[in-house]
Amino acid sequence: MNGELVLVALIVIGLIGRSPIITTAACLLLIVKLAQFQRYLPMIERRGLEFGLLFLTLAVLVPFASGRIQVKDVLNAFTSPTGWIALFGGAIATYLNAKGLALLKVDPQLVIGLVIGSITGIVLFRGIPVGPLMAAGLTAVILKIAQLLLGK
């Protein structure tokens, strides 16, 4: 019953924070749990991130498939200062995502703090949630800095 309460709390938090992705994910997991399909939870846990990243990548690549981004636009990424900065930003983001994934594997209960922090960012700063990986990556960096400063 504990897991169901957490999922219901996440649904409420998602609704209050206007985060349809968190709300939908918690609803789907609650349905899986209440419909007695718990045997699928390990598969969702194991493959869910891969599927999520697949669909995110598909969405990002649609402008290439639709022809909105041309070869000259791709070349611009390698020839303009803004393009180089974007390449650098992308490399840093993927590095942080890897650190976030490693942190979540070691400390999965951090997801609650990341979700509540993301919702706080949505409500107070009009932020846009892109998922727990980047938030976990930033958390990993902040934790490392705190460890260095505190000597732990």
Automatic annotation (TrEMBL):
**Predominant location:** membrane
- TM ranges are 6-31, 51-69, 81-98, 110-128, 134-151
Bilayer topology annotation: Multi-pass membrane protein
Taken from the UniProt entry, a GO cellular component term is: plasma membrane
The record's subcellular location field reads: Cell membrane
Q: Where is the signal peptide?
A: none
Instruction: Report any Pfam family annotated for this entry.
Output: DUF441
Read off the InterPro entries from this record.
Answer: UPF0756_TM
What keywords is this UniProt entry annotated with?
A: Cell membrane, Membrane, Transmembrane, Transmembrane helix
Family recorded in the similarity comment: Belongs to the UPF0756 family.
Among PANTHER family, the record links this protein to: UPF0756 MEMBRANE PROTEIN YEAL
The identity of this protein, by name, is UPF0756 membrane protein E5161_03525
Please name the source species: Cohnella pontilimi
